[in-house]
Each structure stands twice: as structure tokens, then as C-alpha cells.
């Protein structure tokens, strides 16, 4: 009887300012006795879903001319092909590569599947034998490209016509199949077509290319794999439960071995060029898109639907909106204001007809597979944020499944074989946000944690109980015994119901780990701050902001009575601060020997925060004044980091480094590599990879000693973030970048820095963490994205883990998943909380397996795919070149759409066809191409570019998506209709607009939310009401040039606007600064750069991009 | 020098608080000693001597058991014995005062890890040679320090192993005996069958003989 308390407990730490939506009352009933249980039965994830999807009715979507108005005089005149080399076709990593791996090391041992074509019925690789754990090569070598998996070009195995979804359902106990594909409601139709074009319509159908002919269908030539060989019995011993999961503090030897491994220097991280390096040159000849583009001037504004009969009556709003925006200041007709009323009168049948035509033969098609002709349907964006698709599972499985905010797969229906996956040309991978702040998290205390004996999977809701005494692992299918104490269910206090235990009822759960999971006592929370105090740093004035923030939040630092803090400052020398108890004031110790750094005193540099709080406060108060007059311009960052590492290595902890210039002294000194004149003109961006491996090596040392380094870069000049960032990337830290930070000239950055610091200092933190992701046998994980160090084949070492870090992994299908209905994925994160508890957070997700290609397409999660492609493209641009990465992204869109057209579509139509679930894919790819990280042609600072790349890899999907595709809202006519009520507040929900200048109007005010930054654009003829009631100015001319916050006025409009903006801010862990700009403001180009659907000097408009795609596809 | 201090519950060896001193000389061996300490804590029970010093190479384990709580430390072989036990007793008193009542109820390992702060302070005062003089008065109170048992860590750890080895051997023997028994029975039956078959054969032969030759 050792099962003890099971408490439902609020997962967020104390003092969190960041909660997602309404948090339930944390119920934390501590039972005094050993056996206790209490749980709050509210659903765990119910935030932010209160928005109602409305069918995009015609009244809401005036289908205007598809003619983005370029800023400038060239209205209507389209210069021919833009200077955009689009065409060489390297493959983005969907096809496995032909070329041999490029890794510098011989192919590592424990991967027998390296060169095994999946057609062979090989027994599964011994997934994890205890010997391969620490003797294995380090992972960045290991991430060599997948072996030359067969490039099966199966004769277009036309999918069996429309497997209805229910046929793929696992035979659940009587539960009806669900098909809740919820982008738009099934009845909703594409927007009404414009029957009376104001311009002449030329039948330019031939330009679309000949309709592709249907290939003769052949039976699906799946590889004749006869799998089902049971996995070889694994040397289970203590795979990683008892021994290796408690590893973090251990194994100094293997870690050093890793550091000295050959190839780690050049290899640039674990994400070796995996499966990117297949360069297929079949279109290398840069076919000029001019043939198609030549038709642009004749394209009628608005897409013509050639099959729809003209509707009998035209909505007046449409008529007005068909006038181009630039033609006159007529009132803008769009009616934002959230999910409004349904379709306007008279538009109903007419607008339904085009989609009916497409669906006439596919009446049973689920919504996700509805064919969308992208060239004809303009208003693809749903009015609210795009929800994650729901996997096609039985209801009771779906109810238990992990929240998509935590765990998301690019394909919610896993293809049965690698060849189906290859055919779909979509990347397969997972996106995780494992340490997310959760408002509800069941916590289990138990002396034994039930795990599979062979693969060490934690028991989860998707295992099957054979009888009361045995359960079958859902990852390796081994039958395990149910331990005696698991028979007792603390929820119902009854015996003999193992399937009712909380472990089996929750897909996200946290265990308190017993002592086998630790090799050393849990470490205390240790925070070390390393501050740049050179002349440049003092000029920026960040020091006083930092000191004030820390003073304000010093009691909110997560930790217990053991918490330790320390400070190091540096310019050309290193300064330590002795804060020993009993001293009357802090003592500064200066070490000027930066070549051979040493600690001036062994202890009292890191002091107990509780005991020395006053000294620490003294130091923080005096620190900004201490260096006021300094004239030292040099910066010995490398030595300071070494010193900090020495200080932290006995315990581990968190190192926060604040740097304001390029380090130019001592070890790790760097040279400026950026030529500002080349920013816009250079064909390809250089210097995306680190200049020296010093920082990477140091980061790996840190990782071995459980030290994470967070980098705050506040600089106006080039700082070589590509090199400095390594220190955080491999030690699982985070990077913050404040370009042009100055305490007087740039108040927006100061506020952002302050807010970010507050969140940074007070957010939850996990120490000495490791994470392992397991998946059902047959699938294998091969590439990881994010900030961490891959210690063995699948063990991520995370010296610190924070709630704002996201991860992504790529997967491949090693064996056919023939006899499986579902597959599962499990991410287990073992960490030490700031209170010194060792905990394991386990997330399990279950997804269906499908055999037909159309089902695979039906389950595609376009946002996850975009997020994963962005991670892959970042790797690609570092290892290869930016233009390669751009081409690969374009090709990803081309390949998937053309494969959809060829294999999944049963009726062929002209146009660019996509399944409804992928209809946003080309838009997102275009957005990626125009994102700061990947754009070309516009002047982008190297550091900002590199920072954008870091963000794409590091941010959880929801925030990365905002950075890729910002959201545009109209703010001048907010109403309470459809508003969200949170507590006392009413938060209006304006609809998301397309990112096109066409959607702007001079009469309005528009908020562009691009993740890290928000722009509120005020139109020249903005309503007087908005100006006075929200901005508090009398006229448009009176809007100040630089305005960073909304004044707090006591009007309904002001309250609404502020509520909405702060609601947007509260949803994310970083603080986006708000710029209020007028039409002629300096920041307007920045604002317009986010208008993704419009043409810029160097990039295609959305419509041109679609035409380009279509041209490539029909080739 | 004291490298490692662990306070554990005697009943099941659950660690309650601990403190580690990183040491470059000891370096990697510390892991090894830590696992030894864990094993040792699991071995100890109410029957064990309540004060004992265990030699393990050039370091010594010292432990002190009282009121169901075991204080264990790992120190240099050169570290004076009475200092070590003075230190342990000091820790024990403070620990029991602070957490004594809660010891039997906790289930989570290192529940009282915050005691680490006190351990480190105490340790500092014992290690510091200048402060030692002040403590000399304390340590003289430990009169019976000479009677502390000294044993070897290997012996203590292997005592259990020997027992378990014996256990395995015995069970092996038992299973072999059973096998022998069943084999023997099988052989018996077979020979019985052989005998019966022989008799039957003879009988049949006789009958056939009688049938065909006699008549």
C-alpha cells in the first residue's frame, strides 16, 4: 500500500503572469494521510476556443478584384517576370535522399535501418539497448540523412476512390465515427463569384495549361513487406528508467567524449542536411514565368468562376467592393466584427454552386478533402485563428487524446507505409510544447511508476488491458503485468480497476519521481547573471532597467530556501561580487587575467538568496552607478562565460548573459562579418553559420554540467548572433534580441525588454532535464529541432527547460504499419522543479493509421506542416544556402499539390486544386518566403535574420505561425458582437483579414499582429470618432509621430480596443511592442512588408505565386 | 574533508536530505560512492549497529542511526573520527528537531532537501581548521568514540550479496533436485513399461507357440 496522494494541481508556478485564458481554480487538496486523491474534473484545455466559426458569408467577404495595389504608380501595369529565380528544384525533405550522407563521421552503429529499404522485412531495429545509450555517437553526427530509402515511384496508384472516413476508423466499441474537420462548416461555400466583371473578361483558360490527363490506375504497388516479426528481445535491464533517465548529473565522461568527437565542429548541429540534399534538377532551367505572367493585365479582377451560373441578384456590397480600392474613396464595405450573420439574402444558392460543382461527384467527401480551386477562391482565411485538425479517431479515444497545443503531428492520419508518405510529399513530424503552462495538470505520487518492461513507455490511456492483471504496451506491443499497487484506484478508492487509474485517464500527466530517477540529490535553483558593463552597454542604459526589474521580482524568482544567485560583470576584465553573509556591502573582485580565468574566492560568489537578500539588493541598487563613467570599450565575453561556467559547474543552473556588442577581446573574440551594402543586393546570404566553434564547445560543456545559458542581445550594431547564439542553442537556453536598444531613443524596446524580463525572471523553470520522445514501433524519429543537445540517439539533454520552448522532430516510417489501426507518440520530460522535486511530465498522443493517399491528405495539418518546413528550411539555409532553402520550400508546395492532383483527385478540373485542409498551404509558403528569415531582395540585417531563424525553430507552433503569417484586424469599428467574456472583461473579436493592402481603407484603423511586434495603422481619413475616443487626439494630423501605447481613456471604444490588444498580448509569453503609425510614418514600410499577398519589388504576389505553382504542377 | 552527506529514513532507505561537495580529486568516483551510499542505506535496518565507520579505499563512510533516521557521510580517511561523528550528531539533532515528526509520513524522495542549507553551514564549520578549535570542546563529549565499530564497506554490502548468492544456490539445488526426482520417476516408469512389455511379449510368444505348434 504505497500509493499515495494524487492531487490535481495547478501546473503554473506561482506568480505567473502568463496564463492562457481563464484558469480554473486550482484545486490542491492535500490529504494528510498517505492515500489521497482529488481531481478537478473540468477539462484541461478549454482556453481560447470560444470563438465561433462562421461560414464565410458573402456579405463578409466582398470578393474584390484580385489586384493588390502596389504602393506606387504602377497600378494595373504588371511588369513582367520579377527578378525571382524560382526554379531550380532541390527537394525539400520529403523524399529521402539519393545522395549518401554527408556526415563527417562513419555512419553510426546502432542504426541498423540505415540503408534498409522498407520493402525488406527486417525485424525492427533494437530500439534502445542499454549498451547503445552512451556509447553511441553524438547525435548531430547521427542525424545523417536517412539511408537511401527507395524512391519508389509507384505508378500513380490512384487511391481507391474515396475511402470514406469511417472505413478507417478503428473498431471502437460502438462509438460513431467522427469527422470533425472544422475549417469551415460543411454548408459553407466559397465566396460568391463576381458575375458582372467591371473589366473585360478574356477567356484565358489556356494559360492554365492543359488539364492533366488521368493516368491509368494501377493497384497500389505497396512494398511486399511482410513484417510482423516480433522485435528482438531487448536487453531491457534498466533502459532509461532507473539508470539513464536519472542521467543528467551523471556521465561526465561520455559528454566529454561527445565534445571531442570529430565532426562536431563542422556539423553545425544535429540537424544535418537531412533529406534535403536531393537536388532534382529536372527544372533547373529557370523557365521564365513570363508566358503566364503575360496574361496578367488581362486577368479580370476577381476570379471568374467559369462553371457557376450568374446569380440572379448581386449583393450590393459586392458590387461596391468590386471597384478597385484605389479608384476612389468610396466607403469600405467590409463588415468586420467577428462572426457575423450568415450569408446575405439572395446569395445562398449562387454561392453554393461552385463548390457543388466540384463536389458533385464526391458527395461523401469529408470537409477536409473538399476540392478547392485556389485560383478561384480568394477568401481562404477563416475569420478566426485556424484551429488544429482533429484526428479521425473514435470519440472515446479522441476525448482522451493529448491537447494539440502540446503535441501536434503534421499528418493527423499516419500513412501506412513510407511509400504512401513519399507519394504524399508531405513532411512527417511532430511539434511539441512539452513544458507549456497548463491550468490543469494531474499529478501522481506513486512509489512505482508503471512502465513497459521492454521499451520503457509510461502507461498511458492508449494501452490495452488484456485482463485485470496484464496490459499491452501500445508502442512495442509487449504484454506487461499490472503491479499489485496499480490495482488500487485512488480516484474511486476501489480495488481492481486499473483502467480507471488517473494514469490511464489522462494523456498529459505528471509523476513525482522516486529516487531511482535521480543520480544526485535534486539541485537547488541557481541563477547567475553575467552583465556587459562596457562603455557601449552603459550607453544603452539597459543596466538600470535590468537592476530595477530584478529588484522588483527578486522574491518572485522560482525557488525554495536553497535558491542561489550570483553576479559577474565584464568589460575588458571580469568582475566578481563577493556577497558573503556578514559583509556590510558587496565586495567587487576584479580579475584582469582573462587568458587563464580563475575564481578569486571559492565560495560566496554564489550566495543563498534568502540569507543575503539585502546585500544582493544593495548591489543591484549600486550597479548602474558603478560603471557610469567607464570608458572601456572592449568586451571579453568569452572569458566571462568561462568564469561563469566555472562558478556554476558544481551545481548547474541558469546563466543569463546580457551582451551589447561584438566580443572583441580574449577567447571567443569575433570579427564583424556583415557588409551592410550587400544586404539587399547579395544573391545569397553568407555567414549564417557560426564563425568559431568556441561558443558551441562551451555550450556543450555547460550542457554536461547542467548549465543553461540564456542570451540577451541588446545592440544596434552587428553582433554575430549566428555565432553567439550557439551558446544558448546547445545548452537549451533561449535567445532574446533587442535591436537598436536605447533607453531614450527607443522606448518601445525598453518596454519590451522590461516585460520580457519580468516574464523571464518569474516563469516556471525546470532544471537538469532530459526529454525522450518515443513512438510506436515502425516509426522512427530522426531529426530534432529546437534548443538542446542530443545526448544519445533520442535523448534530448535540456539543462534548463522553460514553458516557452517549443520543439519539433521529423519522423520516417521504417516498417509498414499494416496491422495497426492507431499509432502513439509519447514525450516524457524528466526535470527537477525549482522546489527541488524530481518530476516526470508525460504527454501521449494517439493517431489513426490510414492506407489511402486521400486519407493522408485529409489529415494534413497545414500549420504544423508549415512550422516543420520552416525548421527544415532554417537548417537547410545554414548547411547549404538560403536560395536552396527557398527553392525547397516552393517545391514542397509544388510537390504536394501535384501529387494530390495526380493521385488523390478523381476528377480532373482545370485550375490549381488543393484539398480544403491544405488550401492555406501556398499562402503559408509564400509567407515563409517573405518572412524575415528567408526573404531576399530587401535589406535585412544579418542578426535580425538569424534571430528570426532562431525564433522559427524555438517558438511553439502557435507563436511561430504568427511570425510567419501575421494577423490583421480592423479596429475602428469593434463591437461587442461575438465577443469573448473573460472574467469581468469583454474582449471583442474582430475577424482576421487577408494580408493585402486591398483590405486596408483610409477610413479605418488596422492592427497588424506579427508576433513580436504589432502595428496599428491609422488611415488618413480615419473616423474622427476613433481618433478622439481611442487615441485621444483631435485630428489625424495630431497623431504623434512616435506613439507606443494606447492612452487610457474612459470611453467604451478605448476600453474595447485596449482590452483586445492586451488580450492578444496576454496570450503569449513575450511582449510584443505596439507601434501606432500614420500613413506617412517611417515605419510604414515595415508594416507593408507584412502584406504578404501583395507584390513587392522583389517578391511575387500571392496570385502570381499561385500561377507559378500551377505552371510547375502542370508541367 | 566531507564529500557527501545523506540523511535517510531507516525503515526503507528513502533519502530525505542530502548535500554534495564537488571535488576535483574525487571527480568521477563520486558517482560510484553515491550509489554505494544508496545501497548501504537500503541495507541498514534497526539491527545494524547505530554507529559505524566503513572503510572504502581512501575514504570512509560514517553513519549514525537514531530515532529511525540515519545520517551518513563520506569523508577523507584522514578526517578525524570524532569530528565526523560530532558532525553527524549535530545534523541529526537539528534534523529531528525540524522535521522529526514528519519523517514517517513522507513518500517523496528528498522531501526535506531544504535542510541542505543547514548541512552546508555545519559542514563549513567542521571542515574549517580555524573553527575546529572551537569545536574541540564539543567533540570531547563523545567519550565512547573509541568503541565505534569499524568495518569494510565491501563486507557490509556483500553480506547481503553472499546471502542472496546462497539463496540462489539453494533454489538452484532445489530445482535440480526436483528435476532429478521427476527424471527418476520417468525412468522408473519407463523401466516398468519395458518389463511389462517383455512379459507381454513372452506371453504372446507362448500363446502363439501353443496355438500354432501345440495344436
From TrEMBL, chain B:
<feature type="coiled-coil region">
    <location>
        <begin position="163"/>
        <end position="190"/>
    </location>
</feature>
<comment type="function">
    <text>SNARE involved in targeting and fusion of ER-derived transport vesicles with the Golgi complex as well as Golgi-derived retrograde transport vesicles with the ER.</text>
</comment>
<keyword id="KW-0175">Coiled coil</keyword>
<keyword id="KW-0256">Endoplasmic reticulum</keyword>
<dbReference type="InterPro" id="IPR011012">
    <property type="entry name" value="Longin-like_dom_sf"/>
</dbReference>
<protein>
    <recommendedName>
        <fullName>Vesicle-trafficking protein SEC22b</fullName>
    </recommendedName>
</protein>
<dbReference type="InterPro" id="IPR042855">
    <property type="entry name" value="V_SNARE_CC"/>
</dbReference>
<keyword id="KW-1133">Transmembrane helix</keyword>
<keyword id="KW-0333">Golgi apparatus</keyword>
<keyword id="KW-0472">Membrane</keyword>
<feature type="domain" description="Longin">
    <location>
        <begin position="6"/>
        <end position="119"/>
    </location>
</feature>
<keyword id="KW-0931">ER-Golgi transport</keyword>
<dbReference type="GO" id="GO:0042470">
    <property type="term" value="C:melanosome"/>
</dbReference>
<dbReference type="InterPro" id="IPR001388">
    <property type="entry name" value="Synaptobrevin-like"/>
</dbReference>
<dbReference type="InterPro" id="IPR044565">
    <property type="entry name" value="Sec22"/>
</dbReference>
<dbReference type="Pfam" id="PF00957">
    <property type="entry name" value="Synaptobrevin"/>
</dbReference>
<dbReference type="GO" id="GO:0005794">
    <property type="term" value="C:Golgi apparatus"/>
</dbReference>
<keyword id="KW-0812">Transmembrane</keyword>
<dbReference type="GO" id="GO:0006890">
    <property type="term" value="P:retrograde vesicle-mediated transport, Golgi to endoplasmic reticulum"/>
</dbReference>
<dbReference type="GO" id="GO:0005789">
    <property type="term" value="C:endoplasmic reticulum membrane"/>
</dbReference>
<dbReference type="GO" id="GO:0015031">
    <property type="term" value="P:protein transport"/>
</dbReference>
<dbReference type="GO" id="GO:0033116">
    <property type="term" value="C:endoplasmic reticulum-Golgi intermediate compartment membrane"/>
</dbReference>
<comment type="similarity">
    <text>Belongs to the synaptobrevin family.</text>
</comment>
<comment type="subunit">
    <text>Component of 2 distinct SNARE complexes.</text>
</comment>
<dbReference type="Pfam" id="PF13774">
    <property type="entry name" value="Longin"/>
</dbReference>
<keyword id="KW-0813">Transport</keyword>
<dbReference type="GO" id="GO:0005484">
    <property type="term" value="F:SNAP receptor activity"/>
</dbReference>
<dbReference type="InterPro" id="IPR010908">
    <property type="entry name" value="Longin_dom"/>
</dbReference>
<feature type="domain" description="V-SNARE coiled-coil homology">
    <location>
        <begin position="134"/>
        <end position="194"/>
    </location>
</feature>
<feature type="transmembrane region" description="Helical">
    <location>
        <begin position="193"/>
        <end position="214"/>
    </location>
</feature>
<dbReference type="GO" id="GO:0006888">
    <property type="term" value="P:endoplasmic reticulum to Golgi vesicle-mediated transport"/>
</dbReference>
<keyword id="KW-0653">Protein transport</keyword>
Amino acid at each position: 500500500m504505497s500509493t499515495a496522494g494524487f492531487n490535481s494541481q495547478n501546473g503554473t508556478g506561482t506568480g505567473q503572469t502568463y496564463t492562457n485564458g481563464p484558469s480554473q481554480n486550482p484545486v490542491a487538496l492535500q490529504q494528510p494521510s498517505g492515500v489521497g486523491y482529488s481531481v478537478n474534473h473540468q477539462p484541461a484545455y478549454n482556453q481560447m476556443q470560444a470563438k465561433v466559426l462562421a461560414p464565410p458569408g458573402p456579405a463578409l467577404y466582398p470578393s474584390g478584384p484580385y489586384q493588390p495595389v502596389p504602393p506606387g504608380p504602377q497600378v494595373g501595369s504588371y511588369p513582367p517576370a520579377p527578378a525571382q529565380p524560382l526554379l531550380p528544384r532541390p527537394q525539400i525533405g520529403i523524399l529521402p535522399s539519393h545522395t549518401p550522407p554527408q556526415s563527417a563521421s562513419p555512419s553510426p552503429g546502432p542504426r541498423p535501418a540505415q540503408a534498409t529499404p522498407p520493402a525488406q522485412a527486417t525485424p525492427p531495429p533494437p530500439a534502445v539497448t542499454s549498451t547503445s545509450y552512451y556509447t553511441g555517437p553524438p547525435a548531430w553526427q547521427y542525424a545523417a540523412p536517412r539511408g537511401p530509402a527507395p524512391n519508389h515511384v509507384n505508378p500513380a496508384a490512384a487511391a481507391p476512390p474515396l475511402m470514406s472516413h469511417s472505413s478507417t476508423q478503428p473498431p471502437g466499441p460502438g462509438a460513431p465515427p467522427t469527422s470533425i474537420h472544422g475549417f469551415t462548416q460543411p454548408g459553407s461555400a466559397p465566396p460568391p463569384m463576381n458575375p458582372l466583371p467591371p473589366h473585360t473578361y478574356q477567356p484565358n483558360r489556356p494559360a492554365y495549361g492543359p488539364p492533366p490527363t488521368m493516368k491509368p490506375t494501377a493497384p497500389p504497388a505497396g512494398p511486399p513487406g511482410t513484417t510482423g516479426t516480433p522485435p528482438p528481445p531487448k536487453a531491457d535491464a534498466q533502459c532509461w528508467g532507473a539508470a539513464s533517465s536519472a542521467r543528467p548529473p551523471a556521465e561526465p565522461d561520455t559528454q566529454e567524449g561527445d565534445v571531442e568527437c570529430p565532426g562536431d565542429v563542422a556539423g553545425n548541429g544535429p540537424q544535418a542536411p537531412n533529406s534535403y540534399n536531393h537536388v532534382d534538377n529536372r527544372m533547373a532551367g529557370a523557365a521564365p514565368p513570363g508566358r503566364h505572367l503575360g496574361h496578367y493585365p488581362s486577368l479580370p479582377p476577381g476570379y471568374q468562376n467559369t462553371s457557376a451560373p450568374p446569380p440572379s441578384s448581386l449583393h450590393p456590397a459586392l458590387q461596391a467592393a468590386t471597384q478597385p480600392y484605389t479608384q476612389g474613396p468610396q466607403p469600405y464595405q467590409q463588415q468586420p466584427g467577428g462572426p457575423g450573420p450568415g450569408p446575405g439574402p439572395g446569395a445562398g444558392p449562387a454561392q453554393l454552386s461552385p463548390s457543388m460543382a466540384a463536389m458533385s461527384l464526391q458527395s461523401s467527401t469529408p470537409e477536409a478533402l473538399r476540392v478547392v480551386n485556389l485560383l478561384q477562391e480568394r477568401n481562404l482565411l477563416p475569420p478566426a485563428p485556424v484551429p488544429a485538425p482533429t484526428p479521425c479517431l473514435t470519440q472515446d479515444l479522441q476525448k482522451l487524446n493529448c491537447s494539440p497545443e502540446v503535441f501536434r503531428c503534421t499528418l493527423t492520419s499516419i500513412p501506412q507505409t513510407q511509400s504512401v508518405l513519399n507519394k504524399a510529399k508531405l513532411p512527417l513530424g511532430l511539434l511539441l510544447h512539452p513544458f507549456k503552462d497548463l491550468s490543469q495538470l494531474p499529478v501522481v505520487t506513486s512509489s512505482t511508476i508503471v512502465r513497459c518492461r521492454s521499451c520503457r513507455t509510461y502507461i498511458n490511456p492508449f494501452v490495452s488491458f488484456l485482463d485485470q492483471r496484464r496490459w499491452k504496451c501500445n508502442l512495442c506491443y509487449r504484454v506487461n503485468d499490472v503491479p499489485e499497487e496499480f490495482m488500487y484506484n485512488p480516484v474511486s478508492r476501489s480495488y481492481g480497476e486499473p483502467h480507471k487509474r488517473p494514469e490511464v485517464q489522462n494523456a498529459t500527466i505528471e509523476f513525482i519521481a522516486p529516487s531511482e530517477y535521480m543520480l544526485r540529490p535534486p539541485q537547488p535553483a541557481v541563477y547567475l547573471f553575467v552583465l556587459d558593463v562596457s562603455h557601449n552597454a552603459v550607453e544603452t542604459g539597459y543596466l538600470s532597467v535590468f537592476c530595477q526589474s530584478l529588484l522588483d521580482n527578486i522574491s518572485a524568482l522560482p525557488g525554495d530556501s536553497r535558491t542561489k544567485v550570483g553576479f559577474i560583470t565584464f568589460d575588458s576584465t571580469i568582475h566578481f561580487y563577493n556577497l558573503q553573509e556578514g559583509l556590510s556591502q558587496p565586495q567587487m573582485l576584479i580579475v584582469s587575467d582573462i587568458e587563464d580565468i580563475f575564481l578569486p574566492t571559492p565560495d560566496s560568489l554564489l550566495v543563498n538568496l534568502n540569507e543575503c537578500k539585502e546585500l544582493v539588493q544593495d548591489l543591484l541598487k549600486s550597479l548602474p552607478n558603478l560603471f557610469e563613467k567607464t570608458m572601456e570599450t572592449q568586451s571579453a565575453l568569452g572569458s566571462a562565460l568561462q568564469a561563469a561556467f566555472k562558478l556554476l559547474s558544481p551545481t548547474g543552473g541558469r546563466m543569463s548573459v546580457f551582451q551589447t556588442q561584438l566580443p572583441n577581446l580574449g577567447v571567443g573574440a569575433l570579427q564583424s562579418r556583415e557588409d551592410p551594402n550587400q544586404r539587399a543586393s547579395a544573391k545569397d546570404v553568407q555567414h549564417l553559420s557560426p564563425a568559431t566553434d568556441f561558443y558551441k564547445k562551451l555550450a556543450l560543456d555547460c550542457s554536461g554540467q547542467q548549465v543553461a545559458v540564456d542570451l540577451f542581445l541588446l545592440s544596434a550594431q552587428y553582433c554575430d548572433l549566428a555565432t553567439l547564439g550557439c551558446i544558448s542553442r546547445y545548452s537549451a537556453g533561449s535567445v532574446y534580441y533587442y535591436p537598436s536598444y536605447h533607453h531614450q531613443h527607443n522606448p518601445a524596446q525598453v518596454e519590451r525588454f522590461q516585460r520580457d524580463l519580468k516574464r523571464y525572471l518569474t516563469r516556471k523553470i525546470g532544471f537538469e532535464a532530459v526529454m525522450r520522445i518515443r513512438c510506436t514501433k515502425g516509426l522512427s524519429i530522426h531529426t530534432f529541432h529546437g534548443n538542446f543537445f542530443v545526448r544519445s540517439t533520442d535523448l534530448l539533454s535540456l539543462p534548463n527547460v522553460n514553458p516557452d520552448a517549443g520543439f519539433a522532430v521529423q519522423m520516417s516510417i521504417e516498417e509498414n504499419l499494416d496491422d495497426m489501426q492507431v499509432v502513439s507518440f509519447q514525450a516524457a520530460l524528466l526535470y527537477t522543479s525549482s522546489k527541488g522535486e524530481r518530476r516526470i511530465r508525460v504527454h501521449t498522443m494517439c493517431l489513426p493509421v490510414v492506407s489511402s493517399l486521400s486519407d493522408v491528405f485529409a489529415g494534413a495539418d497545414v500549420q504544423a506542416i508549415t512550422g516543420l518546413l520552416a525548421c527544415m528550411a532554417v537548417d537547410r539555409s545554414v548547411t547549404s544556402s538560403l536560395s536552396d532553402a527557398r527553392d525547397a520550400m516552393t517545391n514542397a508546395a509544388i510537390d504536394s499539390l501535384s501529387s494530390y492532383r495526380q493521385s488523390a483527385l478523381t476528377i480532373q478540373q482545370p485550375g490549381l486544386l488543393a484539398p480544403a485542409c491544405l488550401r492555406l498551404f501556398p499562402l503559408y509558403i509564400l509567407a515563409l518566403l517573405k518572412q524575415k528569415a528567408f526573404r531576399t531582395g530587401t535589406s535585412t540585417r544579418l542578426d535580425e535574420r538569424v534571430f528570426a531563424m532562431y525564433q522559427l525553430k524555438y517558438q511553439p507552433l502557435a507563436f511561430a505561425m504568427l511570425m510567419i503569417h501575421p494577423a490583421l484586424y480592423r479596429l475602428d469599428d469593434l463591437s461587442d458582437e461575438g465577443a469573448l467574456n473573460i472574467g469581468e472583461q469583454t474582449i471583442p473579436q474582430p475577424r482576421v483579414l487577408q494580408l493585402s493592402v486591398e483590405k486596408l481603407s483610409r477610413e479605418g484603423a488596422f492592427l497588424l499582429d506579427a508576433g513580436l511586434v504589432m502595428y496599428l495603422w491609422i488611415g488618413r481619413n480615419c473616423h474622427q470618432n476613433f481618433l478622439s475616443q481611442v487615441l485621444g487626439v483631435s485630428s489625424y494630423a495630431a497623431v504623434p509621430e512616435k506613439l507606443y501605447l494606447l492612452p487610457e481613456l474612459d470611453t467604451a471604444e478605448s476600453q474595447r480596443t485596449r482590452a483586445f490588444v492586451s488580450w492578444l498580448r496576454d496570450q503569449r509569453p513575450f511582449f510584443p511592442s505596439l507601434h501606432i503609425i500614420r500613413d506617412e510614418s517611417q515605419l510604414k514600410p515595415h508594416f507593408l512588408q507584412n502584406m504578404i499577398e501583395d507584390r513587392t519589388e522583389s517578391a511575387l504576389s500571392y496570385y502570381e505565386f499561385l500561377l507559378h505553382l500551377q505552371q510547375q504542377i502542370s508541367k | 574533508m566531507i564529500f557527501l552527506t545523506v540523511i535517510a529514513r531507516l525503515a526503507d532507505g528513502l533519502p530525505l536530505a542530502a548535500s554534495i561537495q564537488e571535488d576535483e580529486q574525487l571527480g568521477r568516483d563520486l558517482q560510484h560512492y553515491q550509489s554505494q551510499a544508496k545501497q548501504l542505506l537500503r541495507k541498514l535496518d534497526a539491527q545494524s549497529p547505530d554507529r559505524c565507520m566503513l572503510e572504502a579505499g581512501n575514504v570512509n563512510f560514517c553513519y549514525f542511526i537514531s530515532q529511525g533516521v540515519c545520517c551518513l557521510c563520506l569523508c577523507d580517511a584522514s578526517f578525524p573520527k570524532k569530528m565526523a561523528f560530532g558532525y553527524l550528531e549535530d545534523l541529526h539533532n537539528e534534523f529531528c528537531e525540524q522535521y522529526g515528526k514528519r519523517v514517517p509520513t513522507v513518500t517523496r524522495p528528498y522531501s526535506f532537501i531544504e535542510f541542505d542549507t543547514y548541512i552546508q553551514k555545519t559542514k563549513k564549520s567542521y571542515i574549517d581548521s580555524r573553527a575546529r578549535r572551537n569545536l574541540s570542546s564539543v567533540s570531547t563529549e563523545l567519550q565512547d568514540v573509541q568503541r565505534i565499530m569499524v568495518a569494510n564497506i565491501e563486507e557490509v554490502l556483500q553480506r547481503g550479496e553472499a546471502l542472496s548468492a546462497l539463496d540462489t544456490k539453494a533454489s538452484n539445488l532445489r530445482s535440480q533436485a526436483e528435476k532429478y526426482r521427476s527424471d527418476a520417476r520417468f525412468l522408473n516408469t519407463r523401466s516398468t513399461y519395458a518389463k511389462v512389455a517383455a512379459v507381454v511379449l513372452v506371453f504372446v510368444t507362448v500363446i502363439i507357440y501353443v496355438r500354432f505348434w501345440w495344436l
